[in-house]
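Section 5.1 Outputs to date
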Amino acid sequence: MRFAATIRIALRALRRNKLRSALTTLGIIIGVGAVIAMVGIGTGAKSQVEAQIASLGQNVILVFSGNFSGGGVRSGWGGAGTMTVEDADAVGREISGVTHVSPEVRDRQQIMANGLNWNTQILGEGTDYLDIRDWPLVDGAMFTEQDVRGASKVCIVGQTIVNELFPNEDPVGQVLRVRNIPFKILGVLSKKGLSVMNTDQDDVVIIPYTSQMKRVSKRTNINSIIVQADPTIPATKIQADIADLLRQRHRLGGGRDDDFTIRGQEEIANAATATTRTMTFLLAAVAFVSLVVGGIGIMNIMLVSVTERTREIGIRMAVGAHGRDILLQFLSEAITLSSFGGIMGIALGLGAANIISTVAGWPTLVPLVWVVAAFLFSAAVGVFFGFYPALKASRLDPIDALRYE
């Protein structure tokens, strides 16, 4: 009963100074709101990147041409024509745990159809490409192995190509021209959206890699090899086996750098999300600093309150209140201020995150664990910064307190 009475007295004291109490909680409200909003933005960006990584497919390993040293000059991905179709065939044939392989040849070309033209990415791929990318067709069919062997003039197209060149038409069976070479459209891909590099994955024409090499780009090397790995075998082992095989095929002796680059899906995901993860924690840390500032404000006001209510404290002690009752009363006031500020701050942060998502078009996602953490931290701020004023009040001498003017 004494505990309940102490809490009621604490709440009554806060109600007596409503404006001061509201201004005191403002620092906590802004701090918690900033934490929730910043974490929401950062987590939303991270989830978007992860979704883009997932659009690559499942258990994908990418082998890029390049990353070699020569004459003191280093080259990055695709910087040297070191990969061949035979390399891709050897990876699919000799590496245990590889389920699908597609040689890839990339190019950009101006394409034409229906009297319209469009600059787009031309991908030369194998028949396993859609299985690796987990990319279904919404209409038509994929080209066949026979089309690959014969370098047939056939293709499948992304949704952006359909929108730009075949508005309100069925493109399947129609012809588009790449470098004035007619390619028959066999199928239309489902929508994929943006890639990790923020490029439109649907802005693409996919043709057999042999057609790309012999008819369009007139080249003998490929840009990369796309591999799908067996999920039951560690990806790192498959990557190491691929590296050993390619070093052997490219006659790279001891001490020579690889002339290729291998990246697993997990590595790509970690690299892509590292920046957003760092920014999320940085912004949250800055927001937490404002919480600490709000806590200092609570301590300041509570010290003022102790000074103003010295006679009240003395009277309570004179009629039988113990030091722990006084401590609990002032500590309850501090915790109430910070907890109420935490609740209002959570509402403010969620509202701000939704407004930012609507106005700026940024994805936002606020994990429940951060909501709980922000509230608990705000309550802890009340305990930490309210303890000293409460302790000071509980240690006042009743006689001195009664004499205080």
